[in-house]
Specification:
Layout (H helix, E strand, L loop, with lengths): L9 H15 L1 H62 L2 H4 L6 E2 L1 E2 L4 E2 L17 E2 L10 H6 L9 E3 L4 E11 L4 E10 L2 E13 L7 E3 L12 E2 L6 E2 L5 E3 L12 E2 L6 H7 L4 H4 L10 E3 L13 E2 L2 E2 L3 E4 L7 E5 L1 E4 L4 E5 L5 E5 L7 E6 L4 E5 L11 E5 L3 E7 L2 E9 L3 E6 L10 E9 L1 E4 L18 H4 L8 E3 L20 E12 L2
Parallel strand pairs: 9-12, 9-28, 10-29, 11-30, 12-14, 15-18, 16-19, 17-20, 18-21, 19-22, 20-23, 21-24, 22-25, 23-26, 24-26, 25-27, 26-28, 27-29, 28-30
Antiparallel strand pairs: 1-4, 1-6, 2-3, 5-6, 6-7, 7-8, 8-31, 13-14
Helix pairs in contact: 1-2
């Protein structure tokens, strides 16, 4: 850049103008204009001086603001880091699946709302606080973990005169996304950061087979599991049973295969070689003694198809919601099959039973089957076929029948395995492949001398009197159970949530 193109300071421009004007007006100075000119020049120079000082001070203020703003932002980032560090602790990780949304004093509403987006219009006038006071540490299955109560703090100091506050956290269980909003304070400066995290539960010890307590009706003895040597296959084939209703009420821990106390826990589920005809340890997963509850909400009832007693196909129709059906009964024999096609969307079936007692909701004989299938080359997901029963609903499997790729939830009754051999198309030694959260799982005896279960205090029931020598076919739990992770909020299973990738990070103005 040449000197001619450079911008001259204001004082230099004034000097050039004034000198030119003075040269042309020299005679007038001699004629009495010297004093007014001197006064005018002094006034202009004073104005230039004040302007220079103001400009300089303005630059200084901007610099101070930038420095303070940067310090405030650093405090906010520190608050985010501290919060995430707290979430890595098992006792605090349970809060990653719960919501916390305080009131913005400027708007009188929550900061984020259900969608996790500030100022989107779904904010509400009352705070959401599922963190404060939440302490699951005394629940039966949490005691097994020994994590203790959550200790997460929502505000803290960083250095002298600096602090941070968690303003909101929202969890979207459908997408597995947690949104965290933290505000930092440095003197009069405020800075806010919102981040979105991928959040997933650790499903290594997922309850593939859960014998639960039927809330709110807890008057019945529950949680009984009597395998009598039948196989439980798969690394997610973890068994949870209620110790109080087992042969040994002291079993209040977890036993993995090869653990020294494994025989004690096999005894707790009626599966020892001495008393139950079992041939060694037939359980692939862990066995845990703790009392758990499941409180699934009532859903919207679907199309009522009555009783299915011959080969039938049900299909999911897609869209944003599962396809819903109601059935009074499924009663299949021979080679009849209820095929549920979940290629374009999940299917949920509510069993209403037929009014009889006991209500025989599902009975499969011979080689009859209930199959979850897909026609697009993808493997069916266990969470895409959900069979739910809310009353006294028995599910009985005989002969070489099969239920495959299904989630079975029976609020107050049991799954009875009285099969003589495997029947599922996978070729494994199974009659049920999926996840079962039920009041009990009972099976036929391998020999007349095996122990009786006497479930609910009754004797002479068919699961105690029926003898099927050498029967070992049982259950396989799939390796991928992530399609059921949305149900974890309805049970007191101690799920440890973990955050992964930062999906979005942004500074926002509150």
């Amino acid at each position: 850049m040449t000197k001619a193109n450079q911008k001259l300071p204001l004082r230099h421009l004034f000097c050039i103008f004034f000198c030119s004007w003075a040269s042309q007006s020299g005679r007038r100075e001699q004629q009495g204009f010297a004093l007014p000119l001197a006064l005018g020049l002094g006034f202009v120079m004073l104005t230039l001086g004040v302007t220079t000082v103001l400009v300089s001070q303005g630059g200084l203020n901007s610099s101070v603001q930038r420095r303070n703003g940067g310090a405030g932002f650093a405090v906010t980032e520190g608050g985010v880091a501290r919060t995430l560090a707290q979430f890595t602790q098992p006792n605090n990780s349970v809060l990653l699946s719960r919501n916390y949304d305080t009131i913005n004093q400027k708007t009188g509403k929550t900061y984020l709302g259900r969608d996790g987006i500030p100022n989107s219009g779904d904010e509400r006038g009352d705070a959401i606080d599922e963190w404060t006071g939440y302490d699951p540490s005394d629940l039966s299955c949490f005691r097994v973990k020994g994590w203790g109560a959550p200790t997460l703090v929502t505000t803290g100091e960083i250095g002298s005169g600096s602090s941070y506050t968690i303003r909101a956290y929202r969890f979207d269980e459908t997408q597995g996304i947690g949104t965290l909003l933290v505000e930092g304070h440095q003197g009069d400066q405020h800075s806010s950061v919102m981040i979105k995290l991928s959040v997933k539960p650790d499903l290594d010890d997922f309850p593939g087979l859960l014998m639960h307590v039927p809330e709110p009706d807890t008057s019945w003895e529950t949680g009984v599991l009597a395998l009598r040597g039948r196989e439980i296959l798969g690394s997610k084939g973890n068994v949870y049973f209620a110790p109080a209703n087992s042969p040994d009420s002291s079993l209040t821990d977890t036993s993995a295969p090869e653990d020294s106390d494994r025989q004690n826990y096999l005894n707790g589920i009626w599966s020892t070689s001495a008393n139950d005809g079992a041939n060694g340890d037939t359980i692939s997963g862990d066995i845990t003694g703790c009392q758990m509850t499941v409180t699934l909400p009532d859903g919207i009832k679907g199309t009522n198809l009555g009783t299915i007693n011959s080969s039938t196909t049900l299909r999911g129709v897609g869209g944003n919601s599962p396809t819903l059906y109601q059935l009074d009964k499924i009663d299949l024999a021979g080679a009849d099959t209820l095929t549920v096609d979940t290629t374009v969307g999940p299917v949920y079936i509510d069993m209403t039973a037929d009014g009889s007692h006991p209500q025989l909701s599902i009975t499969l004989r011979d080689t009859a089957k209930i199959l979850n299938v897909r026609t697009d080359g993808q493997a069916p997901r266990v969470g895409d076929l959900r069979i739910k029963a809310r009353a006294d609903n028995l599910v009985r499997l005989y002969d070489q029948s099969c239920i495959q790729n299904a989630f079975l939830w029976i609020w107050r009754d049991e799954l009875r395995l009285m099969t003589s051999g495997p029947g599922c198309p996978s070729g494994r030694n199974t009659n049920f492949e999926g996840v079962a959260w039920v009041e009990a799982i009972l099976s036929s005896k391998n020999a007349a001398g095996n122990r009786n279960v006497n479930f609910l205090g009754y004797t002479g029931q068919e699961y105690d009197t029926l003898v099927t020598p050498g029967a070992t076919s049982g259950i396989a739990v799939p390796e991928d159970v992530s399609s059921l992770s949305d149900l974890l909020k309805y049970t007191d299973w101690p799920a440890r949530y973990r955050f992964g990738d930062v999906l979005n990070w942004q500074r926002i103005r509150l």
